[in-house]
Amino acid sequence: VSLTPQGTTIQVWVRLFFFSASMFVSAFATNAVMSVLRRRIVALDRSSVEVQDLVERLHALYQTIQAVGSKQRLSQVLQTTKTNLTSTMQLEALSIKLLSKDGKFLRYEA
Question: Is residue 62 within 8 Å of residue 52, measured between CB atoms?
């Protein structure tokens, strides 16, 4: 079976069409996958920051609990608690008030 030059040209154009179509489909699929991956990376980054923040807060809580268990004086416990809360909550200042023995007044302790 011999092909005419015109038949060969049609085959080349058909092959070129299918090749181009497959390249467009591949590019579209790659773009869709990359978009999903980008969203997942951003979500993972946010989660990583949140986990780091929680770790820092848990560490401050641990330090406070250690202070409560190891200190003999209430003023030392309150001062440690105040320091840890101020840094964990990123506050400029913090004061701790305790109720008076008769339960009527608040007094500054730390």
Answer: no
Q: What's the whole-model pTM score? A: 0.51
For the chain, the average pLDDT equals 86
SS3 category, 20: helix
Q: How many CB atoms lie within 10 A of CB 78?
A: 17
* Token pair in block for residue 25: 């489909």
In this structure, are residues 84 and 64 in contact, taking their beta carbons and an 8 Å threshold?
A: yes
Quote the CA–CA distance of 37 and 45 in Å, as a whole number.
Answer: 12
Query: Which spans in the chain are helix H?
Result: 5-70, 74-88
Specify whether the CB–CB gap between 80 and 64 falls below 8 A.
yes
- At 6 the pLDDT is 59
Residues β-bridged to residue 64 = none
Q: How far apart are CA 85 and CA 38, in angstroms?
A: 36
∠ CA 20-22-28, nearest 5°, is 105
